[in-house]
């Protein structure tokens, strides 16, 4: 899966984004639960549409979130909730998502919904 790094003013990667059309929140919880430094995973309540933080979790002693900015974005934002206490390397989390491959059906459907015709035609991979 393609990720989009998020950097702070000092060019340190603090988080990343992933396209939400290729992955469900349930799958994100499953992927997060495979990471040793991740604990206390809390998905938001069902039908709690006022909360843009879909999932909250602890990573290396810091509070992190999976959120959808503005509630209708095409990407999930994965990063610290507020300012992290220390410089936290998020590569463990990002690598799990980079290695994730959605099923062929989900990938095709996602490409169709996101109008990614280059990928659909095999021009880009």
Describe this structure in words.
- The protein is α+β, with helices and mostly antiparallel strands and 125 residues long.
- The chain is 25% helix and 30% strand.
- The chain has one domain (3-120).
- The chain has four helices and six strands, in the order E-E-H-E-E-E-E-H-H-H.
- It has helices at residues 25-32, 91-99, 104-113, 117-120; strands at 3-7, 13-19, 38-43, 53-59, 62-67, 75-80.
- The radius of gyration is 15 Å and the shape is globular.
Briefly, what is this?
This protein is of the alpha+beta class and 125 residues long.
* Main sheet strand line-up: 1-2-6-5-4-3
SS element count, helices: 4
The amount of beta strand, in percent, is 25-35%
Classification by helices and strands: alpha+beta
- The radius of gyration is 15 Å
What is the helical fraction, as a range of percent? Answer: 10-25%
Keywords:
125 residues, alpha+beta, six-stranded antiparallel beta sheet, 30% strand
